[in-house]
Design goal:
The structure is a homodimer.
Chain A (H helix, E strand, L loop, with lengths): L2 H13 L2 H8 L3 H15 L4 E2 L6 E2 L1 H30 L3 E7 L4 H14 L4 E7 L1 H9 L5 E4 L9 E16 L9 E2 L8 E5 L5 H10 L5 E6 L2 H9 L4 E5 L8 E6 L5 E9 L6 H12 L2 H4 L2
The structure holds a DNA duplex (30 and 30 nucleotides).
DNA sequence: CAAGAACCCATGGAACTTCGTCGTATTCGG
DNA sequence: CCGAATACGACGAAGTTCCATGGGTTCTTG
């Protein structure tokens, strides 16, 4: 059973005349005859009674007519859907951004990219570290911007974009707020607000550990906005990337004696670089002046 | 867009692996690759991202998937319907019988025919003279048994089956009931019940007219059963085919001086004789011993 | 009424297109 | 370097189309 033959049959069922149907279909009459015969062989019975000018459907033909019309309708819907999508679909890059990355700095980079490529739509999607790898691999997103390289997944290709300092962040009323920098060991004196489930938590904790210190954790949360809210109310202090620490009622203080750095990476499944738009995005992100944008 | 390609795509969408899908479809991998490429050309965009072991659907592919599944489902329903019909459909002859013909005599003929052809189903349909011609021509019925030949329709082929006498019919209490026969002019003395819309009415009226008689019509109806009911209650007398006049509480009386005959014909659109079952029916009906069945 | 025109559909053969397979190249990952 | 996955090119098979033709019916016309 093929759609072409179904269309032939439906036209014939409407005209009840092989020659006229063939003209409408812009094929020759013998071609139509053969196609109908083929359908009849498939269905195991005559669809049409040929009686000179009295051509008409058999009972089998009548009963199949409705069913075949449904097939044709479904096919037409699919075709219309395809052309609608093809028309509407401007090229679109879907970018996963790890939730620990401040969208501001990435946003500036992407804004500039879109100025250079105005036809390209960009879709930003928020992902956690756990789901970002899966989304990359199954095609839900095209590229990802992450705070720590996904380790031991050979299919993913990772480019480092920039590094930024981790800073101590506290509320504007905190007694640290007017200082430029503090030593790491001073951290222990302050109540600490711990951000869970972020890729730099381990880095912070191990650094503290290595210096035989311990943090006085008074609160913890997965959500950056809640952490910031607690900081603003002076519940404690926390350590976070410099770009995240910029917020109303928050002050950043650098660490004197330790260079806590976190890197931001662009990750893409190997093999997907061939898309020209993705290629352009990678090139733009890697040549972008990130340090200039950090202030 | 062709169903074969749609099936290929659906299998590929399930396996997300060209080679495996090709194996399931029992075609080679290059054939599948080409088919999918062709679909992608038709739809104007990639359906599948080929990334080594990470083959997956693009957004276009995902959106088309549901739509194409519907097409495939509709096609499968049509196929199942066809095979169900083909399996269930015992050959069936549809026979239109004009309402003025007593089904008893025709029924005996058909019963014998079915004994000889047990695999053949017969569908009897009741038609009026006006609609029988159309039903024959548009294929609603295969053959018709009628009381008067359809005039001036060259597409119809007519065979005379038998002739039968018209008789006077009256109730059992009527004073004619015990007679064997009456002269035509005696008809005028009795109230007459006129059957409308039947093919022999004109024949009766013209015969009466030619003999300078006139009937005393006291009631008339299109329906044979109502006529018979009126006759049984002795409302009057009527003239009808001998085979119709056989009924409880009715008596038949022949006409002494006139041979009123009506013929019964089998009619078929020319060109439809080629069906073997219809052919057999025609042969059977024409060689059937109708006069022997009249008693 | 018989011959001819017009129409309807089926069949056969030739040209063409499409489809599938095979062998091969390429790319990627282990 | 090998295996897996896909693409490419060539070739044979199958299917599709067209044209020409023929049988059959209906309509027209002399």
């Amino acid at each position: 059973m093929e759609l072409r033959r179904i269309r032939y049959f439906l036209t014939l069922a409407r005209t009840l005349n092989f020659s006229q149907a063939a003209r409408e279909l812009k094929i020759s009459q013998p071609a139509l005859s053969k196609a109908i015969q083929q359908l009849e062989t498939e269905f195991g019975g005559r669809l049409v009674r040929r009686e000179g000018r009295l051509t008409h459907l058999t009972r089998l033909g009548e009963r199949m007519h409705a069913s075949l019309q449904e097939v044709e309708d479904a096919a037409q819907r699919a075709e219309r859907l395809a052309s609608r999508i093809a028309k509407a679909e401007t090229a679109c890059i879907r970018i996963a951004i790890m939730c620990t990355i401040d969208p501001g700095m990435v946003g500036r980079c992407l804004a500039q990219f879109q100025q250079d490529n105005p036809a390209l739509a960009i879709e930003l999607l928020d992902f956690t570290a756990a789901t970002i790898q899966e989304a990359l691999l199954n095609g839900k997103v095209d590229v990802a911007i992450i705070g720590s390289p996904v380790e031991a997944v050979p299919r993913l290709r990772t480019y480092e974009l920039f590094q930024e300092n981790m800073v101590v962040s506290c509320g504007a009323q905190n007694r640290l707020a007017h200082r430029e920098s503090i030593p790491l060991k001073m951290m222990a004196e302050f109540p600490y607000i711990d951000r869970l489930r972020c890729e730099f938590r381990e880095m912070i904790l191990s650094t503290v550990d290595r210096n035989d210190l311990s943090l006085n954790v008074v609160a913890s949360s997965e959500r950056e906005d809640w952490i910031k809210s607690l900081l603003a109310q002076d519940h404690g202090i926390s350590i976070m990337p410099a770009s995240s620490a910029i917020s109303a009622n928050l002050k950043s203080v650098t660490l004197q004696d330790h260079d806590l750095l976190r890197s931001v990476y662009l990750t893409i499944p190997s093999g997907r670089e061939d898309h020209p738009s993705v290629q352009a995005l990678i090139k733009h992100a890697r040549t972008y002046n990130w340090s200039g944008a950090q202030d």
